[in-house]
Amino acid sequence: MAAKIEKVAVIGSGTMGAGIAALAASSGAQVLLLDMPAKEGERNAVAAGAKARMLEGRAPMLDDAAAADRISVGNFDDDMGKLADVDWICEVIVENLAIKRSMFERLEAARGDGSILTTNTSGIPLHAITEGMPARLLKDVAVTHFFNPVKVMKLVELVPGEEMDKGQLDRIATYLDGGLGKGVVWGKDTVNFIANRIGCFWMLAGLNEAQAAFDAGLDLEDLDAALGAPVGVPPTALYGLLDLVGLDVLGLVSTNLQENLPADDAGRPYAQLPPKVDAMYKRGQIGRKAGGGFYRMTKTDDGGRLKETFDLKTESWRESKTAELSPDQQSLAGLLGGDDALSRFVWKTMGATMAYAAELVPEIADDIVNVDRAMRWGFNWRQGPFEMIDAVGADSFATRLKAEGMALPNMLQVLQTSGGKSFYRNDGAEFLGVDGQYHKVPA
Fold it and tell me: Is the previous residue joined to 362 through a cis bond, with omega within 30 degrees of 0?
């Protein structure tokens, strides 16, 4: 039996790194949290400050102050030697390939035999980080992509290196699931992995397809109303989510997609921010962390608060309005079945996302279950894309794709060849595999 993971080191104490460290400590592990040495004063001040903040705020990372006693702090220059007896090292530094490679070289030199080394990256391919590195490292390395906030979000995408030892892979998977209580989704070493590959397509498709909806007289609030509860997406919908995430983050994602998507990928036409949104990004109007993006709250003269919307048609702020949807627009099937401007927008955004996901299996994941779980656990969608296709009817969905001159995605071809009518059957107990056979959904 593989040794349990009892000692954890987190390399980087930013929001994500601190969250992972807090979660590991809460689960009972001894945690070493390292960051840059402070430029002056106490050399461990950066990591120590992150540890102190774990107990602060309305939703602290640590509910139990006693768990903080299991976290020790240090810095990259003085404390690398302490990694020699750690079971799992999780690197959570800046999303920069050169910097990650340099850190991996330092970590490989410091770590002990049998330790597992993972990177928490949202989109940098693992093979790019580890290219040319020693065989000892390659058998122990993987991606563990947590979602923020770590304490709350269920998803962890686990992407093993091509040469990773199976025992080591099982060891880290067991700890993520049983030790940390996360939902493990098995991805492949492809650009943006699973959830961000599909989720960012959805966001960028929505931004780019919105102009036609605006030209038809719709407002930003109408689009968010349709892309929220009716389709099973959280209330932030599209523009609210972008305000939460930040256009600075999406801007980096779009650059990454432009550089790394396959030439024939359906996401390429959407990989750039539309001009008016790009202008917002460039002037720093990036979302909540900058005081506002597509929405903002302002104080009124009587001490109240007013919600405002940045109208992309006029590129100016106005008071937000409440969008009204008709009874036929209260569900995904109803919206996709309509022929008005709002329904066309939902088809171009959500329908295209469903088709995109159906084309990406088995490129980004071995089966549809991992894709659906990634979107439910990572983006809080009520249903994953294959569950959505089943909900609206796979046959009718395929018929519309053909009618609009779109190629039938890979998994819809598999479904039609298999003779099945849906991707899941027996009340969701079985799923359609890439082999055209139905298999039991794993627990």
Answer: yes
